[in-house]
Design a protein that fits this description.
The protein has helices at about 15-20, 60-65, 70-75, 95-100, 115-130, and strands at about 5, 25-30, 45-50, 75-85, 105-110. By secondary structure, it is an alpha/beta fold. The longest helix has 16 residues, at about 115-130.
């Protein structure tokens, strides 16, 4: 299985979820001055949504900066969304935006730091996803 790259704000919800998966992951830093991870193998991105009521600002600026690098963007294979269901239609919006722009699938979504059920489902889903043959050159 390949790795994970994730963004987590100061609340740490996404970081706690990634830790619960027990899989290797590289964190996109909160601070702009900190170095970006440089994955050297295909990865799945886990990204929370930070949007206003209209959906503006859904993808965190740090994630945009990370994906603006062609070498990092070339290795993304899927995205998992995180967020808060209280925000209705914008729940998981960042994942949908990233999937559309990078032409990759949204693999799943979870709320806040996820539940044990979310962890088991997403871990199993990632194992199945990485076990699939690659259909693109």
């Amino acid at each position: 299985m390949s790795g994970l790259v994730f963004f987590s704000s100061g609340s740490g919800n996404t970081a706690r979820f990634v830790a619960s998966l027990g899989l290797p992951g590289q964190r996109i830093p909160i601070r702009q001055d900190d170095p970006m991870p440089s994955p050297d193998a295909p990865y799945v991105l886990i990204c929370p949504t930070y949007a206003d009521g209209t959906g503006a600002g859904a993808v965190p600026k740090q994630v945009i900066r990370f994906l603006n690098d062609p070498a990092r963007r070339a290795l993304i294979r899927g995205v998992i969304g995180a967020g808060n269901r209280n925000f209705g239609p914008t729940f998981g919006l960042a994942a949908r935006i990233i999937a559309e722009k990078c032409k990759i699938p949204v693999l799943d979504r979870f709320e806040l730091a996820g539940t044990e059920t979310d962890t088991a489902r997403i871990r199993d889903g990632l194992e199945q996803f990485w076990g699939m043959p690659c259909l693109t050159p």
